[in-house]
C-alpha cells in the first residue's frame, strides 16, 4: 500500500537562481611624444578617455613616473571603473586595478616597443556579470491522501449502508454488495448473477465456511490486510483461509496463505500440506513441499506419518508421479516389505 503524502502547512517557500554572463572588450592606447610626458611626478597620471565594456564604463590611468615613491622608476598602468551600472558588482574591493610595475622606464626606453618616441598599449577587459533571481511561492495546506482501506474497514464495522446479510453458523455478517463484488468474481456472480433472486431474502446462508474464517475474509476484502492471529493458530487458520480464498477467487489472499504455510512445512505437516496444495491449485506451496521432501532424511520421516499414508490413498496418482519425478529415485531404496509394513501403497516406489 503506498504511503500517504505528508500534509503541507500553509506558508511560503523561496528559491534563488544565479546566472552568469561574460563579455570581453579591448581598448588600444597610443602614447605619442613619450619624452614630453616625462617629469609628470610620482603619483601623477593622465586619464585616458572613457570606454564601455560589459555594461560598465572604464578608463586607463597612465603613471609615467610611477604610482608611488617605491615605484618611482617604473611606469604604472591601471584600469579604473568609473561608473557603476549594475547592482551586483565586485572589483577586488576597489575601483582601481592594474600593473603598478608595468615596465621600468630604462627597460621601456631601451626596448623595441618605443619607436619614434611613441609606444602602444592594448588593454583587454573581461566582465563577468552574475544575476541573482529571487522567487517566492505561497504554499497552501494540502491534506494527506485518503486511507481508503482504513475508511472501508470503518464502514464494515459501522454497517452503515450495508445491503446484504450473511448467516454463517450462529453469526450474522452485514456487508456492502458493491465492495464485495469488486475483488471477488464469485461474490459478483452470486450477488448479481444467477443468485440475484436469492439475495432478496432476509439473509444469505453460508454453509461451507466457518464464521471465524468468513469474518477474516470480509476484513481482508475491505482493508486488504489480515486480522491479527495468534502465533499458535496461524498455521491452522492459514489452511482454512486458503480454502476460503480459493472458494471466493481471492488470488492475493490465496498467495498470502501459501506464503504463510510454506513457513510451517515440517515432518508432521509436509504430506497434508502437499495434498492441500494439489487440491486447490497452489503451485508455490507445492514447490515448497517438494523442496522440503528432496532431503532423504526428511522424506523417510514423512513417509512414516499418518498424513503420508492418507495422501497416498486419497490423492490422485498424478500427484504421486509428480513427487517421484521431482525427487531422486535413490530416495526410494526402502525395502518393499518395509513399505508394506508401513501400509504405504506399493506403486509409490515403482
Automatic annotation (TrEMBL):
Its annotated pathway reads: Protein modification; protein ubiquitination
Source domain of life is Eukaryota
SMART domains found in the cross-reference section: BTB
Give the BTB domain ranges: 162-226
**CDD domains referenced in this protein's UniProt entry, alphabetically:** MATH
InterPro entries in alphabetical order: BACK_BPM_SPOP, BPM1-6, BTB/POZ_dom, MATH/TRAF_dom, SKP1/BTB/POZ_sf, TRAF-like
Family under the similarity heading: Belongs to the Tdpoz family.
Q: What is this protein called?
A: BTB domain-containing protein
Amino acid at each position: 500500500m503506498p504511503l500517504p503524502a505528508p500534509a503541507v502547512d500553509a506558508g511560503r517557500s523561496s528559491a534563488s537562481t544565479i546566472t552568469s554572463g561574460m563579455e570581453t572588450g579591448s581598448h588600444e592606447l597610443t602614447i605619442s611624444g613619450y619624452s614630453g610626458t616625462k617629469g609628470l611626478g610620482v603619483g601623477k597620471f593622465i586619464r585616458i578617455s572613457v570606454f564601455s565594456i560589459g555594461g560598465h564604463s572604464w578608463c586607463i590611468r597612465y603613471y609615467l613616473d610611477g604610482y608611488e615613491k617605491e615605484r618611482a622608476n617604473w611606469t604604472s598602468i591601471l584600469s579604473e571603473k568609473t561608473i557603476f551600472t549594475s547592482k551586483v558588482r565586485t572589483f577586488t574591493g576597489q575601483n582601481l586595478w592594474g600593473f603598478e610595475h608595468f615596465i621600468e622606464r630604462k627597460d621601456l626606453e631601451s626596448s623595441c616597443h618605443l619607436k619614434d618616441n611613441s609606444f602602444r598599449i592594448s588593454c583587454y577587459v573581461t566582465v563577468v556579470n552574475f544575476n541573482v533571481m529571487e522567487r517566492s511561492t505561497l504554499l497552501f495546506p494540502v491534506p494527506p491522501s485518503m486511507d481508503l482501506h482504513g475508511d472501508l474497514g470503518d464502514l464494515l464495522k459501522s454497517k452503515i449502508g450495508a445491503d446484504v446479510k450473511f448467516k454463517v453458523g450462529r453469526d450474522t455478517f452485514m456487508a456492502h454488495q458493491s465492495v464485495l463484488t469488486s475483488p471477488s468474481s464469485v461474490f459478483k456472480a452470486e450477488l448479481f448473477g444467477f443468485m440475484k433472486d436469492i439475495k432478496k431474502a432476509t439473509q444469505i446462508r453460508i454453509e461451507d465456511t466457518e464464521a471465524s474464517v468468513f469474518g477474516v475474509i470480509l476484513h481482508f476484502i475491505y482493508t486488504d490486510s489480515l486480522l491479527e492471529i495468534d502465533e499458535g493458530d496461524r498455521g491452522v487458520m492459514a489452511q482454512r483461509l486458503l480454502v476460503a480464498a480459493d472458494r471466493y477467487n481471492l488470488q492475493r489472499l490465496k498467495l498470502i496463505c501459501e506464503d504463510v504455510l510454506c513457513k510451517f512445512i515440517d515432518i508432521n505437516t509436509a504430506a497434508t500440506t502437499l495434498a492441500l496444495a494439489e487440491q486447490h491449485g497452489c503451485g508455490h506451496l507445492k514447490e515448497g513441499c517438494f523442496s522440503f521432501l528432496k532431503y532423504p532424511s526428511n522424506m523417510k520421516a514423512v513417509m512414516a506419518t499418518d498424513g503420508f499414508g492418507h495422501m497416498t490413498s486419497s490423492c490422485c496418482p498424478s500427484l504421486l508421479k509428480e513427487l517421484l519425478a521431482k525427487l531422486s529415485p535413490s530416495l526410494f531404496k526402502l525395502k518393499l516389505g518395509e513399505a508394506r509394513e508401513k501400509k504405504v501403497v506399493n506403486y509409490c516406489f515403482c
